[in-house]
Specification:
The structure holds two protein chains of two kinds.
Chain A lengths: L3 E4 L2 E4 L5 E7 L5 E7 L5 E8 L2 E5 L6 E7 L2 E6 L8 E8 L9 E2 L3 E5 L1
Parallel strand pairs in A: 2-11
Antiparallel strand pairs in A: 1-3, 3-8, 4-5, 4-9, 5-6, 7-8, 9-10, 9-11
Chain B lengths: L3 E3 L2 E5 L4 E7 L6 E7 L5 E8 L4 E4 L2 E6 L4 E6 L8 E11 L2 E6 L3 E6 L1
Parallel strand pairs in B: 2-11
Antiparallel strand pairs in B: 1-3, 3-8, 4-5, 4-9, 6-7, 7-8, 9-10, 9-11
Classes of the chains: A mainly beta, B mainly beta.
Chain lengths: 114, 113
């Protein structure tokens, strides 16, 4: 059973389109994250939600809108896609007050904007 | 500020030890982590160290923490070709009562025969 699953795994689209990436975790965690990994493999946090509430928002353009319908899901919607949005987007989850603060990552969604 | 730095590349011969180094900025980090990313995959936690420790050993992995210099290292003994991957150092940082992980740029480890 996959612990943190993201769909789609690959997404190719044109500039200006709107797209969504979905994430689900079955670990019973209460906190979920979106990270962006650029072509140089640099990994940067974008958002974090705890029990459906936004707790971290790292200066991300408002074209990016996360939505958490419940604590097991965190989706990412991107409007008016730009070339610079091409990256791998990783979802992750953790449990507040857990032993180590470890994040569990999904396998990533590779977005290519043409 | 938030900054975790690592060298970008390391090449070792199979059977040798690999040492990957990292420096971080937040002296209040409670935990420091090493994650491994294989091609086309997500990040997997290799090991972590609590900030009041200076060493942790887990089979072939040894983590050393120098809190005074904010320096973290990962040593892999008897490196194998299956260890070829990108290794990310990360520090924990509390923001608004919640923990977030700040990652370095990753060190690409290449193991050759």
């Amino acid at each position: 059973d996959t612990a943190v699953s993201q769909t789609p795994k690959y997404l190719v689209t044109q500039m200006g389109n709107d797209k969504s990436i979905k994430c689900e975790q079955n670990l019973g965690h209460d906190t979920m994250y979106w990270y962006k990994q650029d072509s140089k493999k640099f990994l940067k946090i974008m958002f974090s939600y705890n029990n459906k509430e936004l707790i971290i928002n790292e200066t991300v353009p408002n074209r990016f809108s996360p939505k958490s319908p419940d604590k097991a899901h965190l989706n990412l919607h991107i409007n008016s896609l730009e070339l610079g949005d091409s990256a791998v987007y990783f979802c992750a989850s953790s449990v507040t007050g857990g032993k180590s603060g470890e994040l569990f990552f999904g396998e990533g969604s590779r977005l290519t904007v043409l | 500020g938030e900054d975790v730095e690592q060298s970008l590349f390391l090449s070792v011969r199979e059977g040798d030890s690999s040492v990957i180094n990292c420096t971080y900025t937040d002296s209040s980090s409670t935990y420091l982590y090493w994650y491994k990313q294989e091609p086309g995959a997500g990040l997997q936690l290799l090991t972590y160290i609590f900030s009041n420790m200076d060493m942790k050993q887990d089979q072939r992995l040894t983590v050393l923490l120098n809190k005074k210099d904010k320096h973290l290292s990962l040593r892999i003994a008897d490196t194998q070709t299956g260890d070829s991957a990108i290794y990310f150092c990360a520090e924990s940082m509390f923001s608004g009562g919640y923990n977030k992980l700040i990652f370095g740029a990753g060190t690409r480890l290449a193991v050759h025969p």
